């Protein structure tokens, strides 16, 4: 049975969606942008800082669902500019250094609120 996930340690949904959903075995997160839980948008920050905030948000949602970084099966990274890939990747690698998940990275025409990066994940719930 579907369950929605919510944590105050990540920004609240800014539309008609949940931070994540789970069936108890697998959790699907919404895309996380560089928006702090307090509502501060880091869209003017370097892409490394934006990536860090997006991943901090993502891991907070996953933790609320009962998953840890090592439980992540797949991520999708959306970049406003593919020229930011190397900087994003360097920051990302620090979060998934052992046995990283599968990943897709794509350039999007535009991201919510003018962010430079958005990241979503699928994970196993332990």
Automatic annotation (TrEMBL):
Gene3D superfamilies: RutC-like. GO terms for molecular function: deaminase activity. GO terms for cellular component: cytosol. Signal peptide: none annotated. It holds the Pfam family Ribonuc_L-PSP. Belongs to the RutC family. NCBIfam families: Rid family detoxifying hydrolase (TIGR00004). This is Endoribonuclease L-PSP. It comes from Halorubrum californiense DSM 19288.
């Amino acid at each position: 049975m579907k369950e929605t996930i919510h944590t105050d340690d990540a920004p609240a949904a800014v539309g008609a969606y949940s931070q994540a959903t789970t069936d108890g075995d697998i959790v699907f997160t919404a895309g996380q942008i560089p928006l702090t839980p307090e509502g501060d948008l880091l869209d003017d920050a370097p892409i490394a800082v934006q990536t860090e905030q997006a991943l901090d948000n993502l891991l907070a949602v996953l933790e609320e669902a009962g998953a840890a970084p090592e439980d992540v099966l797949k991520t999708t990274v959306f970049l406003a500019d593919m020229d930011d890939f190397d900087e994003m990747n360097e920051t990302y690698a620090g979060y998934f250094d052992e046995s990283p998940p599968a990943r897709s990275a794509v350039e999007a025409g535009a991201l919510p609120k003018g962010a430079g990066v958005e990241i979503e994940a699928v994970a196993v719930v332990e």
